Amino acid sequence: MSAKKIVITGAYGLIANAFFRHLHRQAETYEVYGLARRRHPSERALEKIEEIPEDRFYLADLTDLNALKNAFEDADTVVQLAADPRPDASWESLLDSNIVGVRNVFEAAHQCGVRRVVLASSIMVSWGYQQDEPYKAISQGRFAEVDLDECPMVTHESAPRPTGLYPASKVWAEALARYYADVHHLSSLCLRIGWVNAEDHPGSEKNGAFWCSQRDVIQLMQRSIEAPDTVQFDIFYGVSNSRWRWVDIEHPKRILGFVPQDSAEGKLQEL
């Protein structure tokens, strides 16, 4: 069986670059390519970024549909990680990267006959739940006031509650993914990824509510690529298995086989 061509957008971002390196080590299974609009790391990535070989790199902007079509030719899966991730990003920046760019990714994938798009959404589409108890108490570190047995998990079926334009753009992207799955039969999996940082550490117990380790997000993305074709559309939260998480990870476990290997408590004990 020939290796699957995988194209990862935003290839010089922290998560995308780590995922590229992970798949690149599995050359018999994946023919992986990175795509980005420039050849230097994002501000979040710091020294964690490794250069992508010239023969595995596409220099392209998401606003250029034809460039994306050239990159996606013969691809099995596109992993859409390119975005402006800043919570305070301007509308103009979000419009290019998170709206027009994401539409172009799906349209190019559709026109090129790509089997699946794995879309990086964000846990921030559910950020508004932290305005209510018991999630508010968790976010403020008032753990003594929280009975975990009485704390309902926010699931993929819970209504989105974005608190800014950036997470609102992710809600729109998820709706776009549903459209391409239902109308164009393009398998589209949306990953509501938690906080992944260059230090690969939650920093505090309360941050564990939304933290995701690098190896856990890599596992989730690879399992999304390998999910059976019968999974045409779905939404999955991507966080590590920390005590104070308030989003559901049973759904990705049941559908994808995703089992997080890390927790905030385990990382904090390593200090």
Which descriptors apply to this entry?
7 strands, Rossmann fold, 7-stranded parallel beta sheet, alpha/beta, single chain, 34% helix, 271 residues
Structural summary, described in words:
With about 270 residues, the protein is an alpha/beta fold. It has one domain (about 5-270): Rossmann fold, CATH 3.40.50. Helices cover about 35% and strands about 15% of the residues. The protein has eight helices and seven strands. The chain has helices at about 15-25, 65-70, 90-110, 135-140, 165-185, 215-225, 250-255, 265-270, and strands at about 5-10, 30-35, 55-60, 75-80, 115-120, 185-195, 235-240. The chain has a seven-stranded parallel β-sheet, sandwiched between helices. Helix 1 (about 15-25) packs across helix 6, helix 2 packs across helix 3 (about 90-110) and helix 3 (about 90-110) runs parallel beside helix 5. The longest helix has 21 residues, at about 90-110. About 45% of the residues are buried.
